[in-house]
Amino acid sequence: MVRAQFSAETAGSGEFVRQPNRFTGRVTADSDSPPGGGPDAQGRWPLEAGRYRLIWCRACPWAHRARIVRGLLGLDDVISLGTVDPIRDERGWRFTLDRDGRDPVLGIRYLAEAYHTTDPGYTGRVTVPALVDTVTGQVVTNDYPQLTLDLSTEWRRLHAPGAPDLYPAALRPELDALMAEIHRDVNNGVYRCGFATSQAAYDAAFRALFARLDALSDRLADRRYLMGDAITEADVRLFTTLVRFDAAYHGHFKCNRQKLTELPVLWAYARDLYQTPGFGDTVDFDHIKRHYYGTHHAINPTQIVPLGPDESGWTTPHGRG
């Protein structure tokens, strides 16, 4: 029997099937709840500066996208930020980077505590990002795709002056379709390669991943960003996978047809974004490698963390602007 990294999320065919997001509350501009109140009858939490705390891990691509969007929109002083250790123990994500091992705002040692405050019977995997209400200690949402879209739309009146429109209304049908393809084949596709427990499941995920990367290379050959001349949510979502590709996915997840550095268009595109304020300054390759190689024991039982690859290439000229 092949050992699965997450047995509850592995189908009989050996395919990795990611668990659904448990908490899907939303902070909205039209919530009927008063300041300090809980969700209204429709589950909408009130929009309040300083009330909510975004819990992220520097290693996690899903959490990384929320960190980037928060910064690009100028919400750093509106939504506080808590950071968990890249290494999980048997209780999950830990606040061991903070003094006394507790988040200084929420006062908890494990993100699981906030999950169980919200749902005492929760038994699934605890994930980041999580937007936590500092008034009740409850998780508002761990629904990472909707969270970043809401930051662009529902939080608009709290954006910094001149903040970019990462989710333009006129482009949403095309954006949504593109992001769905990127999620299926690339963002989640690398995990479908890495967590597969059958050759057939791995082969299918591998082929879909590189077919999509080839298509994205073609798309980006004559445009700077995925939707044209401006950065959108789609670029954020693709970047957080690309920046981890050579450091983790190429070797650890066996996504090894080519390295990112061997895909000229995508490598230049990724460097362009990395060198854009709000992107590269949020990347931590040490945390990325220590998390992937140090916590997936079924894939890397020795927990040896590689010393490479060389990171200096990320700051070399990209020629795309």
Automatic annotation (TrEMBL):
<protein>
    <submittedName>
        <fullName>Glutathione S-transferase family protein</fullName>
    </submittedName>
</protein>
<dbReference type="InterPro" id="IPR016639">
    <property type="entry name" value="GST_Omega/GSH"/>
</dbReference>
<dbReference type="InterPro" id="IPR047047">
    <property type="entry name" value="GST_Omega-like_C"/>
</dbReference>
<dbReference type="InterPro" id="IPR010987">
    <property type="entry name" value="Glutathione-S-Trfase_C-like"/>
</dbReference>
<dbReference type="Pfam" id="PF13409">
    <property type="entry name" value="GST_N_2"/>
</dbReference>
<dbReference type="Pfam" id="PF13410">
    <property type="entry name" value="GST_C_2"/>
</dbReference>
<dbReference type="InterPro" id="IPR040079">
    <property type="entry name" value="Glutathione_S-Trfase"/>
</dbReference>
<dbReference type="InterPro" id="IPR036282">
    <property type="entry name" value="Glutathione-S-Trfase_C_sf"/>
</dbReference>
<dbReference type="InterPro" id="IPR004045">
    <property type="entry name" value="Glutathione_S-Trfase_N"/>
</dbReference>
<feature type="domain" description="GST C-terminal">
    <location>
        <begin position="168"/>
        <end position="295"/>
    </location>
</feature>
<dbReference type="InterPro" id="IPR036249">
    <property type="entry name" value="Thioredoxin-like_sf"/>
</dbReference>
<feature type="region of interest" description="Disordered">
    <location>
        <begin position="17"/>
        <end position="44"/>
    </location>
</feature>
